[in-house]
From TrEMBL:
Protein name: UTP--glucose-1-phosphate uridylyltransferase
Catalytic activity: alpha-D-glucose 1-phosphate + UTP + H(+) = UDP-alpha-D-glucose + diphosphate
Species name: Enterococcus hermanniensis
E.C. number: 2.7.7.9
Domain of life according to the entry: Bacteria
Family the UniProt entry places it in: Belongs to the UDPGP type 2 family.
Entry's Gene Ontology molecular function annotations: UTP:glucose-1-phosphate uridylyltransferase activity
Keywords linked to the UniProt accession: Nucleotidyltransferase, Transferase
Length: 297
């Protein structure tokens, strides 16, 4: 069965970006001129996904508005002959998107459970908005390619510094069945470095079979009093195989301020409108900071 549906959880409160997110969806914060959630939607479409469900919460209406048609704006751009800008605006409306609200922030597992009716009895992907991925083949498509061979749930993982294991869900890898594809013995949520079974961390892409919903419906709250998706996947792994796919591309973490800023800079260095000026500015700033760091004679 081909994977055609994606679920994007976007119901978080965005507390790490306050006060900006007090009245604005974190997923709408722009990387130069594109909201972070648009990068996720584009990855889904480039992977061959046909239907996307975005799980929202309070103050997330701007996400729906962003992907809706703005007739007044489109007419204004058309009348002024701004065809390039018109194309950019229209690209965000030609997407088969659905929305559902998570009434209470009970955790990622609960957010995914809201997609049960949308997904039905099909495999699907979960794409988290804090992780932007860059590779020749989109990471979501890589997971879909694995599924065509295994017909099993597959979780994206990436090697992280051992001292950072307490920030992630970590897999206990079993046999490497093919290059970069591992059986998983079990999953451990945010272990201390000395207790971590590996440094393969779960990153924000999951391909799951529909049986995960039965597990999530019975899942008890875990860390933080929330329904943890990692716990549910660990339970699923006891009754059917779950694989881990090691990602070797570039991952941008836009879930914290520093990661967001570095992503904005790196993306800006590829943006046709600003890349030259930004590069010159960074070089000049680097020289200035270097001079300031030199000891005074």
């Amino acid at each position: 069965m081909r994977v055609k549906k994606a679920v994007i959880p976007a119901a978080g409160l965005g507390t790490r970006f306050l006060p900006a997110t007090k009245a604005m969806a974190k997923e709408m914060l722009p990387i130069v001129d594109k909201p972070t959630i648009q990068f996720i939607v584009e990855e889904a479409l480039n992977s061959g996904i046909e239907d996307i469900l975005i799980v929202t919460g309070k103050a997330k209406r701007p996400i729906e508005d962003h992907f809706d048609s703005n007739v007044e704006l489109e007419m204004n751009l058309k009348e002024k002959g701004k065809t390039d800008l018109l194309k950019l605006v229209e690209e965000t409306t030609d997407v088969n998107l659905h929305f559902i609200r998570q009434s209470h922030p009970k955790g990622l597992g609960d957010a995914v459970l809201q997609a049960r009716a949308f997904v039905g009895n099909e495999p699907f992907v979960v794409m988290l908005g804090d992780d932007l991925m860059e590779d020749r083949v989109p990471l979501t498509k890589q997971l879909m390619n694995d599924f065509e061979k295994t017909h099993a749930s597959t979780i994206a993982v990436m090697r992280v510094p051992e001292e950072d294991t307490s920030k992630y869900g970590i897999i206990n890898p079993g046999e490497e069945v093919s290059k970069g594809l591992f059986n998983v013995k079990n999953f451990v949520e945010k272990p201390k470095p000395e207790e971590a079974p590996s440094n393969l961390a779960i990153i924000g892409r999951y391909l799951l079979t529909p049986e995960i919903f039965e597990v999530l419906a019975k899942q008890k709250p875990g860390a933080g009093g929330e329904i943890q998706l990692t716990d549910a996947i660990d339970t699923l792994n006891r009754t059917q195989r779950v694989f881990a796919h090691e990602f070797n591309g570039k991952r941008y973490d836009v879930g914290d301020k520093f990661g967001f800023m570095t992503t904005s800079i790196e993306y800006g260095l590829t943006h046709p409108e600003i890349k030259v000026k930004l590069k010159d500015y960074i070089i000049a700033l680097g020289k200035e900071l270097s001079n300031e760091a030199k000891p005074k004679k």
